[in-house]
Amino acid sequence: MKYLIVEPHVKAIAPNIALMKWARWCDLNSHDYQYVRGIVTPDIYPDKILMSCIFTYDSKVYQKTIKHYLKLYSDAELTVGGVFPSLYPEWFHNLGQILNKEIVIFKGICEAIESLIPKYNINIKCEKYDPEYRRDKVVLYASRGCVNKCGYCAVPNLEGPMRSFKSIAPILNAGWSELASHEAVLYDNNFTEHDYFEDIVRELYHYRMKVDIHGLHVSSFTEDHARLLSMLDWAPQKKGGTAYIRFSFDKKGYRENIEKALKLVRDFKIKAAFFCYMLFNNDDTPDDFWWRIEEAQKIVDKVRKSIHLFPQRFEPFHSLKRNDHVSSKWTKEMLVGLTRLYTETRGFIPITQDRGIYRWIGNSKDEFFNNIEKAYRGEFKPFTLDLASLGILPV
Question: Is the CB of residue 211 less than 8 Å from the CB of residue 184?
Fold first, then answer.
């Protein structure tokens, strides 16, 4: 059997974990296969095509990619998996009807490959060079699912209850041997709730891995977590960038947890800048957005350590276009103006003791909202910011 493993050319920092596991599955089952990224002419004629689709707002890219490969291989069976088809299968059914071709949809986690180690040294034929897309990172999960059931998150529907893996040593060993890599990226949804947190951290330390952990929840971050994480060397997402320990300030109720976590990161001398995703355009209001900025500043003044706020605009699971949703508590003008404002500072709102960011966004809520309106109208006249002085480097 011949398999074509297709990763659409969407924004990514590393190959797709599920597709790398399919490559391993093909190896173990003696199947011929080729892994491609984007729209290329493969070197094999496949019997089956496997494709992963993550974000609904990349639907145009997925549509173009599916059309390309079904035109080349009209008699091949196409199976799509990932977040998008799991949550919105009817889109793929409709596309299949348009193309007069059945698209097989796989929902949720595939047990056939879930326990397999990704093939990190897979040869990938790419559509074009992408400097953001690195092949020298061991991307992995140390757990699946989550104990929380946040309304804006798809994880409870896709992955179910929290399941912690006792060890990731085989995965780290594979990454070490296949990539000679010293960097690990954990895409856990809630690593702070991991049943074997200490064991996993000690394995990362044993392999001398630099780490970037994307799933730390500020509400469950403890002194024990901080003590263990202080052992690790933290890696930037981009070469030459800043290493971050990542939390979220998605709701006002996290305020006290943010202060506690920042103190722990400071006291245990964790070698990473304090980073907070900041969801907006969901159940929050523009006033809430400014409130979180002000409260973050109060925390920074008290703890004497910076916080890098990283706004993230909420999109519903079914949105087929990026930045299309406008919640009932926001307006299109506010959303566009706000995005233009923080885009100038590489997407960050750095909260520092010298309060330099306020020269950009405004010193009060009224000034902030006024600057947002000006940015929307294209009338905002920014001065030249020394981003490095604000602690802003590539993510």
Answer: yes
Residue 82: closest CA among 12, 177, 17, 147: 17
The position carrying tokens 């750095």 is: 350
Specify the CATH number of the domain 2-113.
Answer: 3.40.50.280
Q: Using the 8-state DSSP alphabet, how is residue 10 labeled? A: -
- Mean pLDDT by runs of 10 across the 395 residues of the chain is 97 94 98 98 97 95 98 97 94 96 93 95 93 90 90 82 96 93 93 97 96 94 98 88 94 97 98 96 97 98 97 91 94 96 90 92 96 92 61 54
pTM of the model: 0.91
Which architecture characterizes domain 134-390 according to CATH? Answer: 2-Layer Sandwich (3.30)
In the chain, residues under CATH classification 3.40.50.280 are: 2-113
Q: What DSSP letter does each residue of 320-383 carry, written as one string?
A: -STT----TTS-HHHHHHHHHHHHTTTT-EEE-TT-TTHHHH-SSHHHHHHHHHHHHHT---PP
Taking the C-alpha atoms of residue 283 and residue 243, their distance in angstroms, rounded to an integer, is 30
Separation CA 307–CA 276 (nearest Å): 7
**How far is Cα 255 from Cα 61, in angstroms, rounded to an integer?**
38
